[in-house]
Write a structure and sequence with these properties.
This protein is an alpha/beta fold. It is built from eight helices and seven strands; from the N terminus they run αααβαβαβαβαβαββ. The mean pLDDT is 96. The structure holds 3,4-dihydroxybenzoic acid and magnesium ion.
């Protein structure tokens, strides 16, 4: 790790200590992710809190997450829900989906989260045919190749005034090479381009540094009909 990355981690550590206790559901999810030996690719506590804040700002009662893994970001989103609200989280791996359900139960948030197991685009199709939307907030954090496709489908499931967030769009700065062929980078660029090209959508890319290195959130505000 180079000096800059060590400093980013140290700053995250200091800020996390100062930022107060974690919610119980989040703490339990962090512990379970470690116990289950899941890849250490969760959002950081600081970025998790940002997800909670965005959920609170949108008054979110219906949240959709693509990519559950161990349910760490799910727990933050659940923390930001309006009373009676629910997070629908989509996980492709059946064993991970079952473990995440147990994690939510142990963390006391089982009643606020529904886990759907399946490939992201297929579950989105099922949600569309069930009339499950509209959602107030969508967090896309799954197979990066499909980030643009997920954004496009999420747009049709998001209410006017809602927010769509795409994780890992910067990836160490790799997106600066817009001609690159890495499918994960192409997926990130696709998501950002689609945000910019969507009528009524305001897009912002928040570059982040911290304990996960140099990455970022793309955040889209989904506008309402013209006034
Ligand atoms: C990876 C995936 C993520 O969602 C993330 O936040 C960081 C890394 C990965 O697959 O490497
Ligand atoms: Mg991610």
């Amino acid at each position: 790790m180079d000096g800059a990355a060590e400093l980013w981690r140290a700053v995250d550590d200091v800020c996390e200590r100062m930022a107060g206790a974690l919610p119980r559901g989040v703490e339990v999810a962090a512990r379970r992710c470690a116990e289950l030996g899941l890849p250490e690719i969760n959002v950081t506590p600081s970025m998790g809190r940002l997800l909670e804040i965005l959920a609170r700002l949108t008054g979110a009662a219906r949240v959709l997450e693509i990519g559950t893994l161990g349910g760490y970001s799910t727990a933050w989103l659940a923390e930001g829900l309006a009373p009676g609200g629910r997070v629908v989280t989509v996980e492709v791996d059946p064993a991970r989906a079952a473990s995440a359900e147990e994690t939510f139960r142990l963390g006391g948030i089982g009643g606020r989260v529904s886990v759907r197991c399946g490939r992201g685009l297929e579950v989105i199709g099922a949600l569309e045919s069930e009339g499950a939307g509209p959602f107030d907030l969508v967090f896309i954090d799954a197979d990066k190749e499909n980030s643009g496709a997920y954004f496009q489908r999420a747009l049709g499931l998001t209410r006017p005034g809602g927010v769509i967030i795409v994780d890992n769009v910067v990836r160490g700065g790799a997106i600066a090479d817009t001609a690159g062929h890495d499918p994960r980078v192409r997926g990130s660029l696709d998501a950002i381009e689609r945000m910019g090209a969507s009528a009524g959508v305001l897009a912002s890319v928040l570059q982040t540094v911290g304990s996960k290195g140099y990455d970022g959130f793309a955040i889209a505000w989904v506008g309402g009909p013209a006034r």
